[in-house]
Amino acid sequence: MPEGPSIIILKELIDDLHLTRPEVLEVSGNVTTIDKDRLLNKKIIAFKSWGKHFLICFDGFTIRIHFMLFGTYLINESKKTPLELGLTLKNDQLNFYTCKIDLLEGNIGDYYDWKTDVMADEWNEKEVIKRLKLMPDINICDILLDQQVFSGVGNIIKNEVLYRIRVHPHTKVRNLPRAKLRELVKEARNYSFDFLKWKKENTLSKNWEVYQQKECPLKHKIEKKEIGKTHRQTYFCTKCQKKYN
Predict the structure, then answer these.
(1) 223/136 Cα distance (integer angstroms)
(2) 55 bridge partner residues
(3) Contact between 141 and 172 (Cβ < 8 Å)
(4) Is the pLDDT reported for residue 7 higher than 70?
(5) Whose C-alpha in 46, 84, 216, 218 is 20 to 30 A from the C-alpha of 113?
(6) Predicted confidence band at 228 (pLDDT cuts at 50, 70, 90)?
(7) Reduced to 3 states, what is the DSSP secondary structure of residue 177?
(8) CA neighbor of 84 nearest in space, from 96, 75, 92, 93
(9) ∠ Cα 201 203 209 (to 5°)
(10) What is the edge-to-edge ordering of all strands in the sheet holding 53-58?
């Protein structure tokens, strides 16, 4: 599943096309969740990202694309995988595959709060800490994947951040010391930008300290379990990562 930094890369690739209010000349694909004719001959006013969502904004509505587990995209290329949504512009083609697509009516700002987006300029640590304190009995491994608190954080970032701050994933929010709570919030953003850098360099997996690893950097054995309410695969070191009670 693409995490927030991967969606930023998609947005940057499209920004590099230097499109200025491009008109949609043709709409193709198997999508059934939107009226494709609604997009035809309409001008795109902006491309945005929020967390794991890619947003194509028109006057009065927005197309939201969620890549789920196996979604992909191609720009000015195509492949044999069934096309979910294709947009033909004057000089470019945007193709989206194996993804969830919705149409959001009205102002996109009414749907999203960028203060919780780990990649956004509007990111606000105080707001995130405020939301954390409203859910004291949630495990840290679950809260990091809550998109209303850490928009854009996925399973890789979750595992790596918890090792980076040396916190056991079964620690509950209420048991985390104040300094560790602040560190959690700060490193969720810091690691997301490291993720972005490494992804662009094609060195992301080379920098994993616990995710899909058998040993941590200190040569301790890595535990691998599906834990928390999300039941996502979690990698952690019981010697390096402290469980706060």
Answers:
(1) 25
(2) 48, 64
(3) no
(4) yes
(5) 84
(6) confident
(7) coil
(8) 96
(9) 145
(10) 44-50, 53-58, 61-66, 100-105
Largest CA distance in the chain: 59
Q: How far apart are CA 55 and CA 36, in angstroms?
A: 16
The stretches of the chain forming alpha helices (DSSP H) are 4-15, 125-133, 140-143, 155-164, 178-201
Amino acid at 185: V
User: Model confidence at 35, in pLDDT bands (50, 70, 90)?
Assistant: very high
1 pLDDT higher than 70: no
For residue 19, pLDDT beyond 70? yes
Residue 133: is it exposed, middle or buried by C-beta count within 10 angstroms (0-12/13-18/19+)?
A: exposed
Residue 162 tokens read as 């918890």
Rounded to two decimals, the pTM is 0.93
Q: What domains can you pick out in the chain, each with its CATH number?
A: 4-110 (3.20.190.10), 115-236 (1.10.8.50)
- Distance from the first to the final alpha carbon of the chain: 32
User: Residue 29: left if φ>0, alpha if ψ -120 to 50, beta else—which one?
Assistant: left
CA atoms in the 13 A half-sphere facing the CB of 133: 10
